[in-house]
Amino acid sequence: MRHRDKARQRIGWDIGGAHLKAAYLDDAVLADVAQWRCELWRGLSELDEAFAAARQRWPDLAACTHAVTMTGELADAFEHREAGVASIVASAARALGSDVAFYAGDDGFVDAAAACARWRTVASANWLATASVVARHVDDALLVDVGSTTTDVIPIAGGRVVARGRDDASRLAARELVYVGAVRTPLCALAARIRFRGRAYNVMNELFATSADVFRLTGEVAAAHDQAATADGGAKDPPSTRRRLARMIGCDAREATDPEWLAFARAWRSALAARVCENVRHVIADAGLAPRAPIVGAGCGSFLAYECAQRTKRRYVDFADIVGAAAVCRDGARLCAPSVAVALLRPARA
């Protein structure tokens, strides 16, 4: 990519426990969006390697203005969240050059030292960045960002984010954070019993299959978004996917037809969609959102946000439309909404 004035380039980064996501703005216009696999539980070297891949895509990276948000501080590699924030801040500061700031929610953007000192406001604040951008454009709405691992359900009223929770624990209590996603969720977390060929089965509580297996068969998650390893470390082709699904009820894939396994995948889809929609309804009620308030969808599982809009009889708005993403960046803007948001929220250098 060529850019005429490096001082006007901003990159927003969302550092998660499974992916590094980034959005490149050229003079406040979204020009490129990318995602790299980054399994932080394996160690901080994963993040260093992901930054190296980003540097290959954007050779002028060190000359840009950077805005960073994160959720990766929860990864198993860190003793606690404070240590996770400090480690991620240090890695980002090394990789991104001198002009890097960290999103601290209501405190705005802070430097590396302040980010470590204010780690509680920096930790897992990416949802607030996305919601704050939505609130600039829509007075009343419900943001439903269905990612690979989690779903954010964030109410906006009067042009303000009115979420009850601010950290992960309080957001889980308020139903504003739902630990299900379109790629990495173990299927055994979704249902105790599941129907197959007209009969109900107890579910095997083993990591035999994940939500990616479901949406791979239904064709709703793009291959580019399906970056996580499979439960068995095997292939992502249809036969391997059906084999993993079959194991959830103690079967082999050869015991049923391909259409029957597709119907089984749709049963799991219904269970996941019901979980998301249940929490959406609770947050709508708690926030007292009027029927005119739309659902704004984001994430690789935004099709589930769309379904929630249908079930609650609300208008649906795509996050890509909120930020005015050009056609070439629409999918990326939706997938990497928090990285787009922090890039937009941090002012460009003078």
Q: How would you describe the overall organization of this protein?
A:
This protein is α/β, with parallel strands linked by helices. It has two domains: 6-124 and 324-345, ATPase, nucleotide binding domain (Nucleotidyltransferase, domain 5, 2-Layer Sandwich); 138-314, conserved archaeal protein q6m145 (Nucleotidyltransferase, domain 5), CATH 3.30.420. The chain is built from 13 helices and 14 strands. The chain has helices at 45-57, 81-96, 112-117, 119-122, 126-137, 168-173, 211-218, 238-247, 258-287, 302-311, 319-322, 330-335, 337-345; strands at residues 9-15, 19-26, 29-37, 65-70, 100-103, 109-110, 141-146, 151-157, 160-161, 177-178, 193-196, 199-202, 295-298, 316-318. The strands form three sheets. A six-stranded mixed β-sheet has the order 3-2-1-4-5-6, sandwiched between helices. Strands 7, 8, 9, 10, 13 and 14 form a six-stranded mixed β-sheet that branches. A hairpin with a 5-residue loop joins strand 5 (100-103) and strand 6. Helix 1 runs parallel beside helix 2 and helix 5 (126-137) crosses helix 13. The longest helix has 30 residues, at 258-287. The protein starts with 8 loop residues before the first strand and ends in a 5-residue tail after the last helix. The mean pLDDT is 95.
